[in-house]
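Every protein is a chain of amino acids, and every chain bends into a shape of its own. The fold becomes a row of whole numbers, each drawn from a learned catalogue of backbone shapes. The protein below has been through that process, and both of its lines are reproduced in full.
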Amino acid sequence: MEKHYVYIHVNENGIFYVGKGSGRRLTQTTYRNKHWQNTVAKYPHWGAIELLQNLSEERAYEVEQALIDLIGLSNLTNIHPGGVMFSG
């Protein structure tokens, strides 16, 4: 069973984070980088949107990386360009 998904976090300025996860990672606020924490502190009204679900972990990493490339790392609070190389 494929259990991973790809999600985005959005606020009034648009998409500010792209991620891959499973379980409750979508709305989890712990274990986020400092840039993410600062953005949420500045813009506390944010939402989480699950874009794709039922993915293998490998496919979720591929989609995450593609979305980060499309949006541009400099436009996001992500620290790394995504993918398995940068997990954990």
